[in-house]
Amino acid sequence: MSPPDLPQVYAELRRLAAVKMAHEPDGHTLDATALVHEAFLKLGGESFASRTAFFRAAAEAMRRILVDHARAKHAGKRGGDLTRVPLADLPAGGPAVDLVALDDALTELEAHDPTAAALVKLRYFSGFTHADAADVLGLTRRQADGVWALARAWLFRRLSDG
Q1: Where are the domains positioned within the chain?
Q2: Global pTM value
């Protein structure tokens, strides 16, 4: 991406992060700006071949930040106050989910279906709409619908197993 894209990309990531962080539990020590800044730091000034590659990397960076934050918060508790929430859907504004359990399940899904895992990362961790995430991944809406249905069912089963 060329330098003139940076303000637009930053604004888009900031908007997506704000949507995501609005649905995090009260008392979260990260805010949308901090999440975007940490994501940029994790990306380390890499250059990306395309907008798609950048947003995939940004979604992964935000995922890692949120999961690491959740792990650190619950490190000594061994899950003492964590509850598993059935995963009916994964929009950015969905119910609070045990991020550590979701990360473990998502890592497993990624080994089986990288596209499904990428779609979940873009939608859940970056707050992309279904259509925008499909566009970033180069999928038609119909293809994305099928991948999304598979990912939801797969993750629901893994997260419900407790």
Answers
A1: 5-160
A2: 0.55
